[in-house]
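User: I'm writing a short report section on ligand binding and want a predicted complex to refer to. Could you take this sequence and zinc ion and write out the structure as tokens? A short remark afterwards would be nice.
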Amino acid sequence: MNAVCVRCGGFHDDYRLICPHCGHRPDGEGLLIAWLLSSEHLGKEQLEQAAERVRSGESIRPSDRMLERARRALGTHFSSDPGLSTGQRIGLLSTSLLLTPLVGWVLWFWWRRSRPRAAIQALGLSLPATAIFTALVLWLRFW
Ligand SMILES: [Zn+2]
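Assistant: Sure. The structure tokens for the complex follow:
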């Protein structure tokens, strides 16, 4: 694999790793851009051109369609997100019921871009938990 660093335009082996030239480490949306600037997506000549553009100080702003393609390739698209495992679901549900249903909302917010399926599942588990929790709190208040 060959990849162009989005910050310094230097070449390195793996778009997921820290750039050996400038220490830049892509994460989140940056990882999508890093993938777009790697040999997984671009040909050799296009990579050279991308490196030139970064080195000349041009900022790389991929279109939504490009980002969508990267997201799909990296497994963060809804159709390729495996979602939550059974263990995670039970863990989330019991946390929601015993502590606070807020956890599900936080996870949803966290994952809504990177893990859309897991995010929806977290929300799905938290909504009923939120209802039960609210009912319980109200019931305790009026007791
Ligand atoms: Zn770099």
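A remark for your report: The pocket of zinc ion is lined by residues 5, 7-8, 10, 19, 21-22, 24 (CB under 6 Å). The two ends are 65 Å apart (CA to CA).
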